[in-house]
Recover the amino acids of this structure.
């Protein structure tokens, strides 16, 4: 496994001249990668003094920070397993150590549970020299566990799965082949580091020698301006906000050609060094992708799940509009008779959930680690993958017709008044949409805009695909009320649970005008 | 009469609210999240633009400063303080 990225990070210091930065409003902390690697090594020695050994689990419940990333790389160098907890989802450290079998948990809040420690201990421990102490040589095998992932379950406790070193290596090598991150690059990361993929970009920096900047979601836009990244690792919701902002700023500029004005406004927000924008984790609106491409900021959509890591990705060398790109080397997409995507990998992420309700793991994972994604898609003749929706999102009407709801939902979201839309079929006879408005409280103008969009959407689709009623969500879908995941995807089951009575009882909803 | 800073703040808040809102109709003392649905991401975008237009360096504010700004009046007062220092 000589080309393992993770083993490379364990065995060698990074090449000098590149930096990791941590941006917050009011300040930025810059650390040379060689120094970062050395600090992680000293931290690993301290963790060893605490009794942490190979295979032990280190929990991290904290906002993105230098200490977070130091702990993660220290865990890698020690052979320990990091377990990230998104602070937006976990409001206490109580019970985490027992549930996830942690040897220690670090938190940026006041530690309350036995086994919890303050994240503030990490910096001093990483700075303290330990003369004569060295880490044991360590070589990972592909099936060794790098990290424990927690997935966003629709209800109850998150499911957990282990991430194998081989799968992370495969992803990192494939991304490097596609995007060739190099010495002039600076990758901006603002999604939670509790998501393993957000830590990839630091691993990439350590392996291939480029800069990486980490901040919080809220501070991403100010960071863009200050650090002038070349790559932004985002999600559709972020790029949608950016698009609206750019369009509003364009309105301030009188005259000139529209393309030039758009490009200037985009550069004002994203800086003048962008090489490309990365989006994934949820479907991006075609209009948003086109907007950024036309603004001179190429944006590349991909596809993957926690259970599969990155499956497909558009990139500068192979990009087809409407697709999520070609399947990565080492991965194989198999389509069953229903068009459901199954992903087989040379190095699977894992071969089953570690914790999940009974039967769930077997319904997702085959014995060899092949994952039934539950997404419906197709491959074109050149190997580009297209996602048409979730198998769960296909509604079978009482007349036997199958309706894929995602195109309907995407069409409803064309309206600026609608931020999110989820379509249900309460009685197998008609469709009802629950929309999360762009603003609240909504007034007559917004209600009219939603009704107009409903009419437009119904006009664009067939007789079986007509949405009869629209329920306007109040409050809007949000991470805080559990109706969006931390990656801003609607949680269909929770939305159904929340609005079940209004979905079934159309009193007070917005109705389609029927002849 | 509105100060120049208040005008700037109203204009930029109205702009991130996405649906048409007359800047003059915004209530200085309403909670921007509760009353106008301002998201945390758009709050920072609003503040960035308002700082640009008011000639205030965004780095004057820390994340706790921004979190403490719940009304348009909070933003206007904070911008005014920093604009005076910059002058």
């Amino acid at each position: 496994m000589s080309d393992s990225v993770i083993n490379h990070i364990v065995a060698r210091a990074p090449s000098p001249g590149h930096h990791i930065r941590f941006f917050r409003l009011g300040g930025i902390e810059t650390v040379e990668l060689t120094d970062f690697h050395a600090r992680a090594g000293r931290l690993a020695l301290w963790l060893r003094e605490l009794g942490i050994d190979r295979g032990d689990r280190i929990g991290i419940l904290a906002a993105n920070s230098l200490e977070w990333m130091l702990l993660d790389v220290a865990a890698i160098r020690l052979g320990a397993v990091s377990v990230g907890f998104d602070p937006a989802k976990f409001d206490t450290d109580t019970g985490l150590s027992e549930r996830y079998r942690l040897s220690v948990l670090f938190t940026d809040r006041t530690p309350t549970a036995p086994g919890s420690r303050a994240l503030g201990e990490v910096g001093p421990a990483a700075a303290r020299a330990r003369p004569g102490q060295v880490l044991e040589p360590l070589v990972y095998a592909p099936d060794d566990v790098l990290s424990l992932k927690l997935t966003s379950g629709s209800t109850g406790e998150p499911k957990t799965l282990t991430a194998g070193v081989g799968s992370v290596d495969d992803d990192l090598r494939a991304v490097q082949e596609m995007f060739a991150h190099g010495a002039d690059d600076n990758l901006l990361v603002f999604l939670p580091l509790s998501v393993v993929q957000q830590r990839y970009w630091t691993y990439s920096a350590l392996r291939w020698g480029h800069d990486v900047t980490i901040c919080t979601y809220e501070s991403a836009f100010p960071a863009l301006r200050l650090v002038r990244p070349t790559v932004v690792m985002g999600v559709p919701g972020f790029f949608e906000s950016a698009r609206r902002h750019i369009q509003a700023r364009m309105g301030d500029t009188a005259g000139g050609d529209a393309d030039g004005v758009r490009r200037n406004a985009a550069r004002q927000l994203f800086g003048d060094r962008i090489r490309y924008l990365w989006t994934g984790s949820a479907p991006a609106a075609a209009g948003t992708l086109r907007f950024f491409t036309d603004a001179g900021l190429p944006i590349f959509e991909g596809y993957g799940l926690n259970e599969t890591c990155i499956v497909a990705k558009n990139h500068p060398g192979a990009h087809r509009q409407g697709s999520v790109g070609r399947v990565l080397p080492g991965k194989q997409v198999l389509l069953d008779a229903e068009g459901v995507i199954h992903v087989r990998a040379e190095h699977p992420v894992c071969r089953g959930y570690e914790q999940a309700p009974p039967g769930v793991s077997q319904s997702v994972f085959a014995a060899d680690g092949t994952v039934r994604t539950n997404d419906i898609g197709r491959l074109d003749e050149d190997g580009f993958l297209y996602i048409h929706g979730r198998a769960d999102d296909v509604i079978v009407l009482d007349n036997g017709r199958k309706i894929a709801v995602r195109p309907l939902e995407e069409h409803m979201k064309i309206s600026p008044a609608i931020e999110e839309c989820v379509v249900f079929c309460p009685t197998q006879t008609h469709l009802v949409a629950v929309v999360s408005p762009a603003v609240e409280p909504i007034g007559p103008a917004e209600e009219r805009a939603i009704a107009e969009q409903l009419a437009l959407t119904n006009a664009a689709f067939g007789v079986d695909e007509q949405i009869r009623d629209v329920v306007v969500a109040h409050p809007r879908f949000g991470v805080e009320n559990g109706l969006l995941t931390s990656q801003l995807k609607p949680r269909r089951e929770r939305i159904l649970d929340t609005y079940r009575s209004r979905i079934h009882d159309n009193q007070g909803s917005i109705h389609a005008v029927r002849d | 009469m509105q100060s120049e800073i208040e005008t700037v703040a109203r204009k930029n808040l109205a702009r991130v609210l996405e649906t048409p809102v007359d800047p003059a109709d915004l209530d200085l003392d309403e909670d921007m999240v509760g009353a106008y649905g301002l998201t945390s991401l758009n709050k920072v975008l609003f503040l960035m633009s308002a700082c640009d237009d008011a000639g205030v360096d965004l780095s004057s504010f820390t994340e706790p400063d921004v979190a403490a700004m719940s009304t348009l009046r909070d933003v206007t007062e904070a911008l005014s303080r920093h604009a005076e220092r910059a002058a």
The interface with chain B takes residues 24-27, 216-222, 225-226, 238, 241, 244-245, 248-249, 416-417, 437-441, 445-446, 449, 476 of chain A (CB under 8 Å). Residues 218 and 351 of chain A are 36 Å apart (CA to CA). The first strand of chain A starts at residue 19 and ends at 24. Chain A has 15 helices and 25 strands.
